[in-house]
Amino acid sequence: MEAQKLSAVKPVNSKKDHSKLSKALKQIKSEYHLYLMFTPVIAYYIIFRYIPMIGSVIIATTDYNIYKGLFASPFVGLTNFKEFMNNVYFWRLIRNTLAISLLDLIFAFPAPIIFALLLNEVTKKRIKGIIQTISYLPHFISTVVIASMIITFLSQTGLVNNLIAYFGGEKIPFLLKEEYFWGIMTIESIWVGMGWGAIIYLAALTNVNKELYEAAYLDGAGRLRQTWHITIPGIAPTIVVMFLLKIGNLLNVGYQLIILIYNPSIYSTADVISTYVYRRGILEASYSFSTAVEFFQSIIGLVFVTVSNKLSKKITESSLW
Amino acid sequence: MKITKARLAFNIFNGIFMVLVCIVTLYPFLFVLAASLSSPVFIAQGRVSIIPLGFTTQAYKMVFEYPMIWRSYFNTVYYTVFGTAINLVLTIFAAYPLSRKTFIGRKFFNMMIFFPIIFNVGMIPSFLVVNTLGMRNTVWAIVIPGSISGFNAIVMRTFFESIPDAIEESAKIDGATHMQILTRIILPLSLPSISTIGLFYAVGHWNSFFSAMLYLRDQERQPIQIILRNIVIMNQTDTVMQSVDNDRAQIAESIKYATIMVATLPILLVYPFIQKYFVHGVMIGSVKG
Amino acid sequence: MTKKNFARILSCGIVLILILSLATGCGKVETGSNTTSQSSASGSTGQETSGNKEDNSGKVTDKPIEISVLMPGRPEGPISNDMPIVKEIMNRTGITFKWEQAPSDGNQYSEKFNILVAGGDIPDIMINSDKLVIIRGGMNGVFEPLNDYLDKYMPNVVAKFEEKPDVKKTVTNYDGKIYCLTRMTAVKPANILIIRKDWLDKLGLEVPTTAEEMYNVLKAFKEKDPNGNGKPDEIPFTCRGKLSSLSPFFEAFGIYSKDAFFVEDGQVKFSYTDPRFKEGLEYVAKLYKEKLIDNEYLTNDLNIWQSRLTTDISGMTYDMFVRVDYLNNLMPEPVFEGMIPLKDPEGVAATKDQQNPTGAFAAISSKSKYKVEIAKFFNWMYSEEGILLTNFGVEGLTYQMVNGQPKYTDLVMKDPNNSALVQLFSLGFRDNWPYYTDVRYENEMGSEYQNKLRDTIDKYIIPKYPMTSFTYIDEEQKVMTNVYTQIQTYYEEMINKFIMGTEPLDKFDEFVEKINQLGLPEVLKVQQAAYDRYSSN
Prior knowledge:
The complex is a heterotrimer of chains A (321), B (289) and C (537).
Chain A: H1 2-7, H2 16-30, H3 32-60, H4 79-85, H5 90-108, H6 110-120, H7 125-135, H8 143-154, H9 159-166, H10 181-205, H11 210-218, H12 223-248, H13 256-261, H14 267-270, H15 273-283, H16 287-315
Chain B: H1 5-36, H2 40-44, H3 58-64, H4 69-99, H5 106-118, H6 123-132, H7 139-143, H8 150-161, H9 165-173, H10 178-189, H11 191-207, H12 210-215, H13 224-232, H14 244-248, H15 253-268, H16 270-274
Helix pairs in contact in B: 1-15, 3-15, 4-8, 4-11, 5-8, 8-11, 9-10, 13-15
Chain C: H1 3-24, H2 34-43, E1 65-70, H3 84-93, E2 95-100, H4 106-119, E3 125-128, H5 131-139, H6 147-153, H7 155-163, H8 165-171, E4 181-184, E5 191-196, H9 197-203, H10 211-223, E6 237-238, H11 247-251, E7 261-264, E8 267-270, H12 275-289, H13 302-310, E9 316-320, H14 323-330, E10 336-339, E11 358-364, H15 371-381, H16 384-392, E12 399-402, E13 405-408, H17 410-413, H18 420-426, H19 439-445, H20 448-458, H21 474-500, H22 508-518, H23 520-536
Parallel strand pairs in C: 1-2, 1-3, 6-9
Antiparallel strand pairs in C: 3-11, 4-11, 5-9, 5-10, 7-8, 12-13
């Protein structure tokens, strides 16, 4: 080995770049399967993701007219963005969007993880499977039906208020009070997302080395310590990646559910970026404005994710890139 | 293993928790099921909860008499199976190289995959690309544009990365190519993650209607979600168009719920079948040393 | 299953699927379904369908032609050339239709419309409920101006324009060109007050005609236990249309709250800053506070609304007049009746609530090869037999002539599962064509009571603000979408808060001030210009 290494040492005065490039080419040649299989992936991304992105940039910076098309609509630069940022409700919309997103991150993000861990402690496989199947059912029910259920549950004659009255409390018009909306959104997110979200973590759990548990048991560690020292580090990469992906979408709170359960009296907490854009779209369908707003949301998301990614690299070993 | 007191207490707590979770998550499903089997009058009165009132299978009869229903089912199954197969192949082709430390340009390509997750494709530019490629009104328009989900690729990559390097190295020493490493070692060890990602893609296909709505012209090619969406949003009050006919053309409520069941039930049953792949994948024996 | 086998099966599966897809999926790039070409073969020879005498007056072409159409979808099912009514139209006219698959949801339909335009190959006929989109298309040369075609090929339509000048005004752009045609609706009434007559009788009350009488009746409903169960669980008035459902109460004070603007002495004014509106607000806030109107009016959906009305919780509502029959059919016997509008401050019973005089707007692609034929087709829809077909369908199948009047057959009216209109839709009837709605159709669709009610209400209807008929110049449109959306968000929020008492009414002047700050004067200028343009048409 040693002798081979010595003779492989290159003379000092050869150009660094040249050797780096040829080294790289040699590498590629020896592992060419890798690059071959990745080629269709690159093609896909260029054709179906990045080229359309250029189109979106055009739409966001012009007064896009579907009849004139992408290349003949008048260029307006940053006007669409300015219109959004000068909107009298700009800060409120951002605040509401962020609030719902952050609460989701704090409460609805850990829920599937904890559920997966607890489910993992269920020993009988069949029961575990049944519980899991039931838990993800809400994911498949249309948003329309979920919204209708929320409205019915929270109405004066609904289940929640009936329970409150039964225990002697005063009924609350939940959907008419600003302070409850964020909580309602968070609870809905857990209700609908916990079971389905746990699937990934359950899959990650199967990758944790079983023997480590046995070794820890022999060392006298109880289940809780085992979880803390083995399980969680074992699925940490998955958790980190999911977390980072979620942060990237921080401003992307969708309108589909909110549109169905909000009303003007709680706009101050319920009106988010996407719902405002939706209402504006009723007056005039304008791709320019909505695309510009989406860009804005994406840029902010990108900033958050880049920062988080760097932090994550330092603290844990996982990152997105 | 002796069961300690603490463990027993935990088991009881866990049991109660799981029962509560099941009740809460089972409710919407039971409600839809009950409503689909109830008489419309009781549904209108708001009395139906988890038990059907005025039991009738009329709604299901009518859903199955819907023109093209069997055709839509077939289309959906076809798009789902075909689409998921393509998804998996391409996603594996994306995730595997990215999980190899020797892959040149790894950081750059990771960013390439991540970026579009945040910067979504616009509908019109997407359509123009698909149109230009002549894929409109074909199955390719359904299956190709979304064939790699950045999210899924990154998750799969993370799973691949968790397989110990030692296995790959010992295979390399034996002279294996990457293709062989991938198919003979990595994939078999990654059954849980492939099943998971496959499930995600399959559900995505099953529930999708947007691509079909945009790209497919013919009735014969429509998937079942097109039908579902049309019926389920029917009662949304449309205040823009003050059309008396919107209020006049009433379908029985029960049909709405029966449609949901018919369109959703098949995919619900897929997961229990792939659950058996969720076994411990890493064979520890091969890693020692 | 060993890992090796799994991998093998997986790769075999992929290969199999790829082969299957090549066999079935490939090569179907061309559009047009098989069934369409089959029916075009039978349709173009002018064969009869069900006992009609051979009628060539509708023929727009000698050789068979295919016309592509984009029309909003129906939840009951997609339109197809196999449907009897569609077949009949094709027989009479010689046209074969090629239908572009379309969703029924408004938003999705807009997307579909837009991408078809963006994609470049536009169907011959495009229909949209948003007039401004069509107008813009016309002004950009994508849709054909129809003025000449009207003069040359559409005398029937021109005749009906004389009868319904509002419709003509609506489709005429500010540049004088007409870029689309539309359906002419037959009746005006839309929403009315609906009340439990039996509750009134039980409590010995008269139908209220003024705001004060209304208050007393609602109070009685609340306190005198009309549902007879001994519990004070009544919610006298309920609704499902949020603020717009409260408009009858505001109208009693002289402001139609569904219209943000109104015209007085030729001047466009803003409804919500008017002192009369404030009076209405005080009244409605009082009703809310005393729980005489549903305190959940902002969150009720269809389900809750109909539940309250059919389980004896509520005794009054404000909704589409066709809901009278609807509600009565859900009760053991008919107990709901319609009310004439409340009297305004001058003592005149009147309402501005009415249907739009138009339906969806249909435009012809400027690149179509069949512009003349389509114009003739539209014209035929306004002929006597065209009106019969578009309203009633196929003689013998969907309607019969009884004493010279068309009556729907049992196939339409007596289906055990579907309402009459749903049946018609599934047979190929579409209300999206730019046709002429015959009042006899409206009559057939309702009970005798409901029709009489409708005609009674019709007399009380006065003109509303014609905002949906306006056309805007681009700069004006920008003001509306930018400035007005902000104003709209603000007043929606504040008005509801005033009603609910979350915001005290002494803050009303601040509210007015803020709206002016947000740019109301600019918006009023735009509206005034649009209104002046509209009235001078």
